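Hello,

Our lab assistant flagged a job as stuck in the queue for most of the afternoon. It eventually completed. Since we weren't sure the result was trustworthy after the delay, we are filing this so someone can double-check. Below is the sequence as submitted and the structure that was eventually returned. Let us know if re-running is recommended.
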Amino acid sequence: MHPLDNIIWLALTTRQAHMAEGREAARRFVPEISVLSAIHAPNEDGWSALARLSRPGDVSAIFLVEPYVPRPGWTTVRTAPLLEMIHDGRRPADAPGNHRPTILELGDADVPEMMALTQLTKPGPFSPRTRQMGTYLGFRINGNLAAMAGERLHVPGYTEISAVCTHPDFAGRGYARILMTEIMQRIYDRGETPFLHVRQGNSRAVGIYQAMGFRERVLLHLAVIRKD
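-- returned structure --
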């Protein structure tokens, strides 16, 4: 097995176990932190454990090796093919930007703007306490949050880069790449390797990540489901 196989389960049983709910064949992050959930194996024991862990209306986002097959007791919110990409190991060079704003570390006071930016740009699920999953960096222009990027899943030897997004008013300035580069440098400074997930159909983002040294490791299948 590769260290990034069943990545959400691994995070919830190792470096982020303190954020987990569930102790059987299914685990999930505390809902206020993230809707990411995992089953130990995609079998009846796993799905039954997730059902016991969930209340009606609860949403779970799961990474699967095979496309999701609808199950009784769950409503499918959306599904999508998802590329898991891992960096090739070369430390990133400083991103260009002679006139870039100051990189800021985002905190609790920034959460309302972080949630508004992710709701606008839709880089992936972002909950009120997602910021607690790792370091989040951003740029402010005229006092407003213009771009951000951060860390989400942590497993031994690896950290995921997530929530990479830029307000449409500031697109094309390279802000997201600058923030990603800074986060990658911090990850490498800890002796870890960066990885990320991106929708397979987002060819623009995939191209940018490839240019930065990320390579496809595996095709996963995202399933966002709601308990009936």
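-- support follow-up --
The delay was a queue issue, not a problem with the job. The result is valid. The helical segments are 7-13, 44-53, 111-121, 175-189, 203-211. Residues 11 and 155 are 5 Å apart (CA to CA).
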